[in-house]
Amino acid sequence: MFFDTDCAAVVHNIAYLRIIEVARTLLAEQLGMGLVAMAQSQLYPVVVRTEIDYRRPARLGDQLRTHGRLDSVERSRFWCRFEVHRPADGTLLATARQMLALVQMPSGRPARLPADWPVRFAHLCPE
Question: What does the pLDDT read at residue 122?
Fold first, then answer.
């Protein structure tokens, strides 16, 4: 989008966070944590850390594709990994990792990940 770019028509670094947010929301659906389910359970994943490596610039008019996956599962947190590509030439534009924890609302207390997650999502995590 035009508002995602600077005067040189290069995508702002902050725009990648929004792109990753969309990918993470879609990934959450695959993990059984859709927006409606979260609202009903009041259990929400909260971003604790974000790491982004900007490899090449995206430019105004580029169509981008983002792939997100579960990277690892621990007792009280999990990591997701994202890649942003420009399909027109196959260029990898950015990679990102995010650490998330579950928080029970309205108390705001951290919650343990469901005990079955390491087994249930083992096929999604790299070896």
Answer: 67
User: pLDDT digit string (tens) for 98-126?
Assistant: 999 999 999 999 998 887 777 777 666 66
d(CA 105, CA 38): 10
Cα–Cα distance for residue pair 25/52, rounded to 1 Å: 18
Which positions ≥6 away from 22 have C-beta within 8 Å? 66
Q: Kindly give, in sequence order, each residue whose CB lies less than 8 Å from that of residue 125, ignoring residues fewer than 6 positions away.
A: 69, 70, 71, 72, 73
How many domains is the chain built from? 1
21: containing domain: 2-124
pLDDT for 116 equals 79
Q: Which residues contact residue 43 at a Cβ distance below 8 angstroms, ignoring those fewer than 6 apart? A: 33, 102, 103, 104, 105, 111
Residues 6+ apart with CB under 8 A from 64: 19, 58, 84, 85, 86, 87, 93
Whole-structure pTM value:
0.85
The domain that holds 98 is classified in CATH as: 3.10.129.10
Find residue 109's DSSP bridge partners.
104
